[in-house]
């Protein structure tokens, strides 16, 4: 079934039980979709709100195939499902959205760079390096420092190194060899394909941007306003939407680039294009994500249609909703685990102080720097909006009393 019909609810299978899956439940309920969840463990964020749930291993083909029976479409909370399993699903006639041929560009940074080069998308200079000596040769040619990344299995800045000079060139190879990243023990280890080291030109960026678009199987596309994003030690901390000071021509060029990438790669659902704005003005593609993205959380309360609703609309091949912002400025702050263990107790203060503030908690236990929630504020005056959101997040993290 490719579109929703009245005969029975459209069944969306979501693989992965993190907060991204959890945040799809609200819009799924409103759209009358039935969600079936494949959770990695009992009690994870989305499993707490699910009623049709299978607990199992997403890297086990038999588990995923039996989970998908009866699903009209399957989508994801994360990008770690092995390509071979997704291909097997497609062979059985399950609509995988996004499909494995698109998703591989979010799973493997080398595949992504090669596709971006083919599309002529602006990217840092790059090269796949097999040894520390090749990394040194790349740095000598391009200029130090350079960035080294694992092709697969990185997340939240893990698997990305700034290499200042030849003396550090063994670091990424040692990390992969020891299994510290990209190997047996990391969260991203489920995808198939070997882990390679990608060397990149170090971009002296002034800021990072995110261009979020959604594409439906029918080929409709919508583009959200471009956001400015702030990472703290590899973790998204804050987004400001729209990105301050980005002129109309560059906004449109950036949105068009993201829509073109989504179209050319055949993405279904959300595509987040992470970008770097270089000191010389170039806007370069950093990486791609194909699922609702942290830099789009602002849209839950700040846009006419949230990224989660539009993702599900795309998965069910419904017409997409208006991505425009409701207010001139929207600021989202992540709430990371800090010294406050009882987040609910913190709600009393932040909600009574600011009735327009929106809080989203993920049902996760507080651990240091773990993403446990986010807050959103919107309004006409950016410094005021930002101060309100920042206060609430810092209070919930226990940084201020
Ligand atoms: N070529 C580059 N030049 C300068 N900084 C870079 C470069 N590539 C990446 N970075 C920095 O490292 C961060 C993490 O890189 P990247 O997004 O590739 O890794 P990740 O671990 O997959 O991230 P995510 O948490 O988004 O999954 C980027 O957000 C950016 O701040
Ligand atoms: Mg990234």
Describe the structure.
The chain is α+β, with helices and mostly antiparallel strands and 401 residues long. The protein has three domains: 11-96, Rossmann fold; 125-201, 2-Layer Sandwich (Dna Ligase, domain 1); 205-396, ATP-grasp fold, B domain (D-amino Acid Aminotransferase, Chain A, domain 1, 2-Layer Sandwich). Helices cover 31% and strands 26% of the residues. The chain contains twelve helices and 18 strands. The protein has helices spanning 19-31, 61-68, 83-91, 100-107, 109-119, 132-142, 171-177, 248-265, 298-302, 307-315, 343-353, 382-396; strands at residues 11-15, 34-39, 53-55, 73-76, 95-96, 126-129, 146-150, 160-163, 197-201, 205-215, 221-223, 227-232, 235-241, 269-278, 283-289, 329-336, 358-361, 371-379. Strands 10, 11, 12, 13, 14, 15, 16, 17 and 18 form a nine-stranded antiparallel beta sheet that branches. Helix 1 packs across helix 10. The longest helix is centred in the middle third of the chain and has 18 residues, at 248-265. The chain is globular, with a radius of gyration of 21 Å. Mean pLDDT is 95; it is low at 184-190. It binds adenosine-5'-triphosphate and magnesium ion (MG). The site of magnesium ion (MG) has 3 residues, from strand 15.
């Amino acid at each position: 079934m490719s579109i929703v019909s009245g005969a029975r609810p459209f069944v969306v299978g979501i693989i992965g039980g993190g907060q991204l899956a959890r945040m799809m439940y609200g819009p799924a309920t409103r759209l009358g979709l039935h969600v079936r969840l494949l959770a990695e463990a009992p009690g994870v964020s989305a499993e707490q709100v699910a009623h049709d749930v299978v607990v199992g291993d997403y890297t086990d083909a038999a588990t995923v195939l039996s989970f998908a029976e009866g699903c009209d479409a399957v989508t994801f909370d994360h990008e770690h499902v092995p390509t071979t399993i997704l291909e097997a699903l497609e062979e059985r006639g399950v609509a995988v959205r996004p499909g494995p041929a698109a998703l591989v560009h979010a799973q493997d940074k080398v595949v992504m760079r090669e596709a971006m080069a083919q599309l002529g998308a602006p990217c840092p200079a790059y090269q796949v390096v097999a040894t520390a000596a090749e990394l040194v040769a790349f740095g000598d040619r391009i200029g130090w420092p350079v960035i080294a990344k694992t092709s697969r299995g990185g997340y939240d800045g893990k698997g990305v190194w700034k290499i200042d000079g030849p003396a550090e060139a063994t670091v990424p190879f040692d990390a992969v060899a020891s299994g510290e990243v990209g190997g047996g023990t990391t969260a991203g280890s489920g995808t198939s394909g070997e882990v390679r080291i990608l060397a990149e030109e170090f971009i002296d960026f002034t800021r990072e941007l995110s261009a979020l678009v959604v594409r439906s199987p029918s080929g409709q596309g919508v583009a959200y306003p471009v956001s400015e994003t702030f990472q703290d030690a590899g973790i998204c901390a804050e987004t400001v939407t729209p990105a301050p000071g980005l002129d109309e021509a560059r906004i449109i060029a950036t949105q068009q680039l993201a829509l073109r990438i989504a179209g050319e790669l055949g993405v279904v659902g959300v595509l987040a294009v992470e970008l770097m704005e270089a000191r010389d003005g170039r806007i370069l593609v950093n990486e791609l994500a194909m699922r609702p993205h942290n830099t789009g959380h602002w849209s839950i309360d700040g846009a006419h249609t949230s990224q989660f609703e539009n993702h599900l609309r795309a998965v069910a091949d419904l017409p997409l909703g208006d991505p425009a912002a409701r207010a001139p400025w929207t600021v989202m702050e992540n709430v990371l685990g800090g010294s406050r263990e009882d987040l609910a107790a913190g709600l009393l203060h932040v909600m009574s102080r600011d009735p327009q503030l929106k809080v989203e908690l993920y049902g996760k236990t507080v651990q240091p720097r773990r993403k446990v929630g986010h807050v959103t504020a919107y309004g006409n005056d950016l410094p005021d909006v930002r101060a309100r959101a920042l206060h609430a997040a810092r209070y919930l993290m226990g940084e201020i009393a």
